[in-house]
Amino acid sequence: YWAPEGTEAAMRWARNAGATYLECDLQRTKDGYLVLFHDLRLTRTSDIDSKYPERKNVAISDLTLEELFKLDMGSWFNYTYPSNARSSFSKLDILTLEDLTMIAVGYKEILFKNEFIKKSMDASSPYMNLTPPTMEIDLVYTLKQKNRIYILELN
Q1: What's the rounded Cα separation, in Å, for the pair 49 and 134?
Q2: What is the DSSP letter of 96?
Q3: Strand pairing partners for 27?
Q4: For the chain, which end, N or C, has fewer CB atoms within 10 Å of the first or last residue's CB respectively?
Q5: Residues 129, 126: Cα–Cα separation, whole Å
Q6: Exposed e or buried b per residue across 110-132, where buried means at least 16 C-beta atoms within 10 angstroms of its C-beta
């Protein structure tokens, strides 16, 4: 393993190494956002047991995106694979589907977390009244405009 699974570091590594596609598992948060996550529980690849000890066995669907952004999704890798550890793996955020799309098309920075927090706090923002499914429809439209095809299987 070269980077913590399902993180920005892993997706960028794969893209930069010449991968022809980026594979991921998607799960829906309590507030409806799609995030990259494989396991049923967060305990193996996050610090949920220290951030939310009373909720450490909950599913992604039991947490909001804002709660998930408070978790460290990368430090576990440094302990599990010390020969491939990097300080940049500490405090990695969970990725949204939008983040992955930006990485796949070559953006140098992903801004979803900061924009999400800013937009959710700004009452004048046009994003205030958007629900996550509307954002997903907009994202699919954006992908269609870039002539990219993505096949998703949602369980």
Answers
A1: 32
A2: B
A3: 35
A4: C
A5: 7
A6: bebbeebeeeeeeeeeeeeeeee
| Nearest-angstrom CA–CA distance, 96 and 112 | 8
In the chain, alpha helices (H): 8-16, 48-51, 65-69, 75-80, 97-104, 112-121, 132-145
Look-up: residue for tokens 């794969």?
14
Residue 35 phi/psi, 5° resolution?
-125, 155
Secondary structure (3-state) at 30: coil
Smallest Cα–Cα separation from 76: which of 110, 109, 43?
43
Mean pLDDT value across residues 19-33: 84
Q: Reply yes or no on whether the pLDDT at 31 is more than 80.
A: yes
Distance CA 33, CA 58 (A): 17
Residue 44: per-residue pLDDT: 95
pTM exceeding 0.85: no
109 pLDDT tier (thresholds 50, 70, 90): low
Q: Report residue 51's pLDDT band, with 50, 70 and 90 as the boundaries.
A: very high
**Whole-angstrom distance, CA of residue 133 vs CA of residue 154:** 14
Residue 67, both tokens: 């709660």
